[in-house]
Design goal:
The structure holds two protein chains of two kinds. By secondary structure, chain A is of the alpha/beta class. Chain A has five helices and 13 strands. The chains are: A alpha/beta, B alpha/beta.
Amino acid sequence: MLDKTGIAKRIAKEVKDGYYVNLGIGIPTLVANFVRSDINVEFQSENGVLGMGPFPFEGDEDADIINAGKQTITTLPGASFFDSALSFAMIRGKHVDLTILGAMEVAENGDIANWKIPGKMVKGMGGAMDLVASAENIIVAMMHTNKAGESKLLKRCTLPLTGVGCVKKIVTNLAVLEVVPEGFKLLERAPGVSVETIQKATEGKLLVADDIPEMNL
Amino acid sequence: MILKRVNNAQEALTGVKDGMTFMLGGFGLCGIPENAIAELVRLGIKNITCISNNAGVDDFGLGLLLQKHQIKKMISSYVGENDEFERQMLSGELDVELTPQGTLAEKCKAAQAGFPAIYTPAGYGTEVAEGKETREFNGKMYVLEYAYQAEFAFVKAWKGDEAGNLIFKGTARNFNPCMCGAAKITVAEVEELVPAGQLDPNEIHIPGIFVQRIFQGTHYEKRIEQRTVRPRN
């Protein structure tokens, strides 16, 4: 079974040379730490920066240079700043190659819920609805089950939706799955995790071929 | 050259009244019009509607207007990080309209560009699209979203000149350019106001035609919400 860092490491392998990538808050943010150093990738943050670098050295932080998580950041050579409309033009216009974001629930039809729990304080969707409505290549990074042990991979989402039919791939602490018309297709198992364990933790329809390889991290 | 310069925030905010709708630039606390917000607090006007991506924190940004119960309605994409906001929202004192971030930017841009509405894929099939017109283009569904209508837009830029031309810095740009010219009156505050002719026309982000009043801001705090750093060695 993977921890959050392990999930980020596995997703980092999906990041290819020449990709522009938008990373959500939480596990997705960690992905940047594990991308191969021999490929060229630019990270976009929807508040208006492309070519994000690491956090600044202490004393170098600039209140005018932050990411969408409102953290102080730096930029790398080739970086650019732009306004919010142009930022979402990159996203909506499918110029960003890969979007990695967290979720509370994903359904076997590709629906995703990640912004609102009825009865709890609603903080808002931020850019999540724009991201999921447009990106062609969305990877969801999340734990396979919630804190109560209930599956987050469902037949149908129970929480208010963020987007419909948009998720293509999911990487959890237990598995890598692809959303296909028939359900969740199991692609890889986390190290030491059996198909049976994944099956038990998946409420939606799980499609299992004869031989499911372990993830190569 | 048409001069847009006014002396201070007090002059720049002449005409703001109870019940008006304002656009305010900024993402979190980055690039917010600190001087305009302070003047709105001083004026004490009430029942205002604010179109702003976020609602500040308890003791800074739009949180200052919330403290004084001046805001009737917030139109935002994300409103965490603010306990007083949460209290007023849950008690029903404050009306909140949550809008996807890219849609919020584009509803401002539509107003700026003279479009009555736009179609966006964001929010289709979710509660955000409930009651709204939808339409299919090339096999994909879109939601009709109307341009905002506001009396004033308050924006913050890095540099500006007396003709109202603006240059922004870093990610403090965010929603500010999208709101220029998107309200009846756009008020720009800048960290550095220079005479016309001193900014290179090639480097202007927003031409002065979109700005009615510009003033030199003072006492910028530029508070950082999440100070994240790495060690030097």
